[in-house]
Write a structure and sequence with these properties.
With 165 residues, the protein is mostly helical. It is 81% helix and 0% strand. It folds into 2 domains: 80 residues; 63 residues. It is elongated, with a radius of gyration of 42 Å. The protein starts with a helix and ends in an 18-residue tail after the last helix.
């Protein structure tokens, strides 16, 4: 009788064993499928982010091209005459007048600094050294490089040389 009972139990267990193994295998497959879908989702996110950065770079390039074109048009428009003599004279004089005005203010501030140092008892050599700094050298180099390139290289439409000489 025990053999019959054991045979029945073992037969049932052996009959269920393949089903249990299939269930465990499906569980592993589902875990693997889920992991693969997670990887695919991460890949799609990266691809989307890359595409967005490409679109942003393209938009930036298009904006830069447009900005350069607008700058080119505005510079060309500044050079055109209006055929009204006083308006043209005023337009032509704005930049040099502002430049001279700021240079005069700058020179006045440096002179005041020098005179103040001299009034305080500093000798003139030390006063000049403290009034003239590397920032001043850079400023004057920028001004000279802006205003005097025509002395070396002829500018467009001009004869070249300093002060039209």
């Amino acid at each position: 009788m025990i053999e019959t009972l054991l045979g029945g139990l073992l037969g049932g267990a052996f009959r269920l064993a393949p089903e249990v193994l299939k269930w465990l295998d499906r569980k592993g497959e589902r875990g693997h499928e889920l992991a693969m879908q997670d990887k695919a989702l991460e890949f799609e996110k990266l691809r989307g982010a890359q595409r967005m950065s490409e679109i942003g770079a393209g938009a930036d390039a298009a904006w830069n091209v447009g900005a350069i074109e607008v700058l080119r048009e505005s510079v060309a428009a500044q050079g055109q005459r209006s055929r009204v003599r006083w308006a043209d004279a005023l337009s032509i004089s704005v930049r040099p007048v502002i430049t001279y005005w700021f240079m005069a203010l700058y020179c006045a501030a440096k002179t005041a600094s020098f005179v103040g140092a001299m009034s305080g008892g500093t000798d003139w050599g030390a006063a000049i050294l403290h009034a003239w700094t590397e920032a001043d050298q850079a400023l004057w180099a920028g001004v000279l490089n802006f205003w005097l390139p025509g002395c070396v290289v002829p500018l467009e439409g001009g004869a070249g040389g300093c002060f039209g000489l």
